[in-house]
């Protein structure tokens, strides 16, 4: 029977830590390991069988065995050298646990001691490395954003991205600076040129034939996104040099709708401050 979410979460946690305590991950990896071992033993037996038969065929089989064994050993070690490696063998997890047991540091607090006893698996270490804050993660985020923005081919796909920019930079309650560099990178990267994409988006709905409600919605998200981007840069901070903004935006932003007035006035004020 279905239970409350909190109860299901506790049951899942109870069973999951039972799997870890009884090393279920290691047991599951034994099955493909048996298949790999059978292949290596077969090649080794073939070499032993061919020794009295033909020395040339023995050398060929031995070379094949050495090649397979070398590749297998390399694929076993490679994930330990680079956690983002997509190749690994059943022995990689075992070797990871052995290396972790030797390199583990002494816990200095209760929380660290609990983490030490949990002994994270390779998959958990991959997830932790992928999500922890670092310069490498920031570079990956920027590459992913560039790929995503390049894949947004038309305005219907681009509109949700533009609409999300203010929430990313400001958040629900206050200004957030953690993603300033990402947006600035999208503006300056030659593969994306975010300001040019915004300009194209603005011109299409300004000159195109749209329903009044749709045009109002697009103008709103454009004003909010441009205002959020303009708020990144500060003339008093030399480390935040603003890019070149489109001067024609100042003369093109015309609307008599009272819903747009707060967004338009704030955006024009910041735009005038940056362009004059």
From TrEMBL:
Keyword Transmembrane helix among UniProt keywords: yes
The keyword Transmembrane belongs to this UniProt entry's keyword annotation: yes
Keywords: Membrane, Transmembrane, Transmembrane helix
UniProt cross-references to InterPro entries, sorted A to Z: DUF6535
Recorded superkingdom: Eukaryota
Domain DUF6535: 3-51
A Pfam short name: DUF6535
Transmembrane segments: 30-51, 57-81
Name of the protein in its database record: DUF6535 domain-containing protein
Natural source organism: Mycena albidolilacea
Lineage of producing organism: Eukaryota, Fungi, Dikarya, Basidiomycota, Agaricomycotina
């Amino acid at each position: 029977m279905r239970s409350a979410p909190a109860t299901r979460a506790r049951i899942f946690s109870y069973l999951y830590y039972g799997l870890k305590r009884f090393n279920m991950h290691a047991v599951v990896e034994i099955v493909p390991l048996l298949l790999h071992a059978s292949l290596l033993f077969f090649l080794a037996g073939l070499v032993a069988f061919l020794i009295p038969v033909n020395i040339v065929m023995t050398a060929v089989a031995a070379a094949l065995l050495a090649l397979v064994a070398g590749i297998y050993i390399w694929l076993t070690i490679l994930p330990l050298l680079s956690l983002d490696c997509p190749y690994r063998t059943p022995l990689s997890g075992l070797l990871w646990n052995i290396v972790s047991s030797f390199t583990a540091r002494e816990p200095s607090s209760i929380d660290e001691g609990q983490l030490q006893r949990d002994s994270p698996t390779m998959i958990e270490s991959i997830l932790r490395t992928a999500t922890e804050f670092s310069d490498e993660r920031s570079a990956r985020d920027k590459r992913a954003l560039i790929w995503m923005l390049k894949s947004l081919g038309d305005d219907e796909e681009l509109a949700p991205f533009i609409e999300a920019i203010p929430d990313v930079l400001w958040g629900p309650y206050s200004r957030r600076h953690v993603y300033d560099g990402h947006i600035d990178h999208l503006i300056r990267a030659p593969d994306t040129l975010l300001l040019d994409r915004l300009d194209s988006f603005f011109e299409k709905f300004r000159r195109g034939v749209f329903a009044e409600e749709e045009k109002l919605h697009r103008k709103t998200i454009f004003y909010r996104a441009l205002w959020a981007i303009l708020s990144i840069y500060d003339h008093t901070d030399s480390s935040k040099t603003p890019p070149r903004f489109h001067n024609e935006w100042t003369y093109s932003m015309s609307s008599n709708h009272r819903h747009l007035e707060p967004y338009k006035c704030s955006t024009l004020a910041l735009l005038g401050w940056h362009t004059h």
